[in-house]
Write a structure and sequence with these properties.
Layout (H helix, E strand, L loop, with lengths): L2 H4 L8 H20 L1 H7 L2 H21 L7 H25 L5 H23 L3 H37 L1
Helix pairs in contact: 2-5, 4-5, 4-7, 5-6
């Protein structure tokens, strides 16, 4: 949501150029989603979500410090890759956890949560802009994603340890 505000700080100000960065985000998500079947054959869904959270953490952190137009491509691609991994994983989790008659309903909640997050992020992170700037918002988002990655990593490690001990 804040990337269009960030891009002029690295010299990207035309509407066309900004839209190309956002298109790169969508394309990266599409590539990750297309390759998802192959990835899920090699790694657990929780691992793919952890990878997504790491992509988001690194992407947000890089956006907080990048200084060039070319450098600004990397964060937006990492953020897109994360989305492309998270959505299929959460849809698959819903399919396995929800009662069969409620799968469609629960799957629609995933999209709703995504749009709700896009709506809420300016409300939650926007007040930080006057205090720390747009780059600081990306730093804060990196912290939130990092906490999520750490929490999921600890959960997966404890789960794997419990299975090994059983």
């Amino acid at each position: 949501v804040f990337y269009p505000q960030f891009l002029p700080r690295v010299g990207v100000s035309s509407s066309l150029a900004i839209s190309l960065y956002l298109a790169a985000n969508g394309a990266a998500g599409g590539v990750a989603a297309v390759g998802y079947d192959r990835l899920v054959d090699r790694a657990a869904r929780s691992t793919l979500v952890l990878v997504a959270l790491v992509c988001w953490t690194v992407g947000f952190a890089l956006a907080a410090v990048v200084e060039t137009r070319a450098g600004a491509v990397v964060p937006v691609v990492l953020l897109g890759l994360g989305v492309g991994l998270v959505f299929p994983s959460t849809c698959a989790w819903v399919e396995t956890c929800a009662p069969a008659e409620k799968t469609g309903q629960f799957s629609s909640y995933i999209a709703s949560f995504g749009y709700t997050g896009q709506f809420l992020s300016p409300l939650l992170f926007g007040p930080l802009v006057p205090l720390v700037g747009v780059r600081g918002v990306f730093g804060a988002a990196a912290g939130v994603a990092g906490v999520g990655a750490l929490g999921l990593g600890v959960w997966a490690w404890r789960r794997a340890s419990a299975v090994a001990d059983a």
